[in-house]
Amino acid sequence: MSKVEPPAPDWVCLNVDASISPITGIGSIGGVLRDAAGAWICGYQKCVGKVSILQAELWSVLVGLQVVRTFDFARLQVQSDNSHAIKLLLDSSTIGNSMPLVRAIGLLRQEFWQIDFRWIPREKNMVADCLPKLPTPPQFRLSVISDIPEAAVPFLDRDRDGPPYSRRGRGVL
């Protein structure tokens, strides 16, 4: 069993995720900002339109950084279960990247004292995974969520304490 590896005590963690509706092809994003102990600080969600899953994940990072910027945190760890997105963001030439979203993230990244991008397995990102699947605000509006939605509480606990399931099967162990 695995659980989220929290950042160092003086860091905060942003878990991001995205979802594409198989029916409409519309992408939704969500993220959770947590302290080093795994406690909820805030979350966010937004509809981003017809995009690829990579674009949606990058949108989730960009919007998450914009939300985090409103707080006064000097050290941020961003965790995503999309390895391609993380690989793009770890590249030292993000500002020169041909993808506008990667460039925008690279520019915003310069505003933080320290930022660390990390890939994590999906089963360690369940609370962020559930947010894009909740009903999103209309007309592409950003919803910043101060109180954890009831539907996300069990996922926050699983991410922090370790899930009662494995990647191979969805049943309880």
TrEMBL record:
Residues 15-132 form the RNase H type-1 domain. It comes from the Eukaryota. Pfam families: RVT_3. SUPFAM superfamilies: Ribonuclease H-like (SSF53098). CDD domains: RNase_H_like. InterPro entries: RNase_H-like, RNase_H-like_dom_plant, RNaseH-like_sf, RNaseH_domain, RNaseH_sf. This is RNase H type-1 domain-containing protein. It comes from Hibiscus sabdariffa (roselle). The lineage of its organism: Eukaryota, Viridiplantae, Streptophyta, Embryophyta, Tracheophyta.
